[in-house]
Automatic annotation (TrEMBL):
The keyword Cell inner membrane does not apply. Keywords: Electron transport, FAD, Flavoprotein, FMN, Heme, Iron, Metal-binding, Monooxygenase, NADP, Oxidoreductase, Transport. The chain holds residues 7 to 468 of 1054 of the full protein. GO terms for cellular component: cytosol. This is Bifunctional cytochrome P450/NADPH--P450 reductase. Heme binds at residue 407. In the N-terminal section; belongs to the cytochrome P450 family. One of its GO terms (molecular function) is iron ion binding.
Length: 462
């Protein structure tokens, strides 16, 4: 079959294509606008490169078919390889280190491992709560900033026994500064105009310095662990250093371990912190939802001043979990994932896809497909009640990607986020003093920009 002409933005220009309609700080949101105008599949052209965006639930279900499609490591991930190399997130499907590391690390993400991380997650949650206690009735808190401190410290401690100590300092940790700047440069690189390398010399130098700094910190963490003589395998670093592959008996090499550590620090914190920040935003704007969530945590922890949530408690916070799911529906913080055809095929019965050809799944619009009803913009955690979940097509909800390359840290993120959110709504009232209007900031991930909330301690009357 011949390629069916796919819709594209109306104001496409010669040579540069649709670049002007897709500013780099609104790539996702401008694609969402295009999807609203053009439908469940469309293209955008950036100079010579044509990119296909897919968001229809039936089409995405086909892209999720692992017999015909697999993860695609495209330009945007290839540039991130400058930081993470063959780490899990950026490894090519056929790179041997992907399967090797995946098999070795999988036990670290089993439900039983969450039990091991629970005390660490709780300890870090208490640091945030402590800091927020100091703000009650005083100044507002920078929600995204504090959530980033929490998630970074959690993955650092739970994964590698390394304490970033983010709440002990006002300033952003230099590791985070280098990471964020490095990621931003890697992403911007995709839009560098070919042949104008001299323009980017300074940026390239800074990037090299940032990578060297990140690797230095990580190598130090690894060295300390080895020097300590600790050969346990109950965190990510322990598994990587001390657990041989279940079949081959090999361990990961040093460079790969470093790539995995940087990968987990990137993948393991921004996405979760953005999710928590969006969730608090939605809770302040939806008092009925908040009240129901408060009733749920109160039923568990009552009037206890400083509850001591058990591992099992987190599984009981079903409605809090529904809130997180609904948050991830509206703003899946890793908003795009790429698929490539394993052979010549077609989707939707009419769109041919050649072997190797890539398509981007635009998750926020998949999550607004008509299968979600006709009020898709409203925040309604009831969508994730067990009954409603059963009615929905299985591939309509993909905040963690799909298939064997889906997010390995999903349980980790949800346990951490449910625990913290539960504790926060149990303890605080949130004061939306500035009547915050959502503005989504795009980096590698999405987060609410400039969300500041006032805080008050709840009394038994609220
Ligand atoms: C992969 C989302 C939290 C580690 C992915 C992918 C998505 C995603 C969409 C697939 C990317 C692709 O197909 O290219 C999220 C979201 C999170 C979250 C929304 C939080 C709410 C975490 C955490 C960790 C983590 C906490 C680690 C502790 C990873 C890794 C991969 C991955 C290592 C690559 C897996 C592989 O290809 O083998 N994540 N993630 N993520 N995520 Fe997450």
């Amino acid at each position: 079959t011949d390629r069916v002409e796919l819709p594209h933005p109306a104001n496409r220009l010669p040579v540069i294509g649709d670049v002007l309609g897709a500013p780099s700080d609104r790539l996702v949101q401008s694609a969402m606008d295009d999807a609203r105008a053009l439908g469940p599949i469309f293209t955008r052209k950036f100079f010579d490169t044509e990119v296909v965006f897919v968001s229809g639930a039936d089409l995405v279900a086909e892209l999720a078919d692992e017999d015909r499609f697999a993860k695609h490591v495209g330009n945007s991930l290839v540039t991130i390889r400058g930081l993470t190399g063959d780490g899990l997130f950026t490894a090519f499907n056929d790179e041997p280190n992907w399967a090797k590391a995946h098999d070795i690390l999988l036990p670290a993400f089993a439900m039983s491992s969450m039990r091991t991380y629970h005390p660490t997650m709780l300890a870090v949650a208490r640091k945030l709560i402590n800091s927020w206690d100091g703000h009650t009735g005083q100044s507002t808190v920078d929600v995204s900033g504090d959530m980033t401190k929490l998630t970074l410290d959690t993955i650092g401690l739970a994964g590698f026994g390394y304490d970033f100590g983010s709440f002990e300092s006002e300033d952003t940790h230099p590791f985070v500064t280098a990471l964020v700047r490095g990621l931003a440069f890697a992403q911007a690189k995709n839009r560098h105009v070919p042949g104008l390398d001299f323009l980017y010399r300074k940026g390239n130098e800074q990037f090299a310095a940032d990578v060297a700094f990140l690797n230095g910190v990580v190598d130090e963490v690894i060295k300390e662990r080895i020097a300590s003589g600790d050969t346990s395998t109950d965190d990510l670093l322990g598994l990587m250093l001390n657990a041989p592959h279940p079949k081959s008996g090999e361990t990961l090499d040093e460079v790969n371990i470093r790539n995995q550590v940087v990968t987990f620090l990137i993948a393991g914190h921004e996405t979760t912190s953005g999710t928590l920040s969006f969730a608090l935003h939605f809770l302040t704007k939806n008092p009925a939802v908040l009240a129901r969530a408060q009733a749920e945590v109160d039923a568990l922890w009552g009037d206890v001043e400083d509850p001591d949530p058990s591992f099992e408690d987190i599984g009981k916070l079903r409605y809090v979990r529904q809130i997180l799911n609904e948050t991830l529906r509206l703003w899946p913080t890793a908003a795009i994932f790429a698929r490539q055809a394993l052979r010549d095929t077609e989707i939707g019965g009419k769109y041919p896809v050649a072997k190797g050809e890539a398509m981007l799944v635009l998750t926020p619009m998949l999550h607004r497909d008509p299968v979600w009803g006709d009020n898709v913009e409203s925040f309604d955690p009831e969508r994730f009640s067990p009954e409603r979940e059963r009615e929905r097509p299985v591939h309509a909800f993909k905040p963690f990607g799909t298939g064997e390359r889906a997010c390995i840290g999903r349980q980790f993120a949800l346990h951490e986020a449910t625990l913290l959110l539960g504790l926060l709504i149990h303890r605080f009232r949130f004061l939306d003093q500035d009547n915050y209007q959502l503005k989504v900031k795009e980096t590698l991930t999405l987060k609410p920009e400039g969300l500041h909330l006032g805080l008050a301690r709840r009394t038994s009357a609220d």
